[in-house]
Amino acid sequence: GAVVSQHPSRVICKSGTSVKIECRSLDFQATTMFWYRQFPKKSLMLMATSNEGSKATYEQGVEKDKFLINHASLTLSTLTVTSAHPEDSSFYICSARDSFYEQYFGPGTRLTVT
Amino acid sequence: DAKTTQPPSMDCAEGRAANLPCNHSTISGNEYVYWYRQIHSQGPQYIIHGLKNNETNEMASLIITEDRKSSTLILPHATLRDTAVYYCIVRVVYSGNTPLVFGKGTRLSVIA
Predict the structure, then answer these.
(1) Band (B1; pLDDT cuts 50, 70, 90)
(2) Which of A20, A61, A106, B7 would be A4's cystine partner, CB 3.0–4.6 Å?
(3) Chain A contacts of B105, Cβ < 8 Å?
């Protein structure tokens, strides 16, 4: 089956610093990737849709200048949390869509901002 | 807004069948029913999907009512490793950039 990886799996950073999370589709090309965020005991919330070679589309309430998304190739999308604060601590999950419009999920990245 | 309704939690004895219901009374003719599960601190895992016929794979069975307004996911012999949050999602396939939208799901606890 299709595999999506994320790196790092967990990261701790200090308030005010930036953190980059990578999402890779390992055995298929993904023109579209999605980024979700999940707070404890809550469901996944879509943050943005990332299309290869173009600007990401952000959901209402998600700050595009704070959550920078780059989808520079058909197998890689990155999410950079800029000037992170404790309230950005969360579980970030990416998902890649294959040519049959099926979505596959990465294992998630747990971000803790101290 | 979520298009599905699921019970917030369920318990199941280990080795017994787990039957997880989902209501999707507003489902459209071109929408499929998908089931995913999320084990604690992991990404969602695909389980099964169907349009109108019952489906079975190595993980589970999906029973869709004739009017397609509800469905049931069946885990035939639940194990402790099946403890997870199960999400029922309706979506149109071949729909461009439309992402999967998650509701609150059902938290299944498999008890020894």
Answers:
(1) very low
(2) A106
(3) 43
Q: Which chain A positions have a beta carbon within 8 Å of B97's beta carbon?
A: 32, 49, 51, 57, 97
Using the Cα atoms of residue A28, residue B50, residue B69 and residue B21 in order, give the sign of their dihedral: negative
3-state secondary structure of A87: helix
A67 with A81: CB under 8 angstroms?
A: yes
**What whole-number distance in Å separates Cα of residue B15 and Cα of residue A34?**
36
Tens of pLDDT, residues A31-41 = 899 999 999 99
Q: Is B94 left (phi over 0), alpha (psi -120 to 50) or beta?
A: left
Q: How far is A100 from chain B (nearest CA, A)?
A: 7
**Phi, psi (deg, nearest 5) at residue A112:** -120, 120
Burial B65-103 (b: 16+ CB within 10 A, else e): eeebebbbbbbeebeeebbbbbbbbbbeeeeeeebbbbb
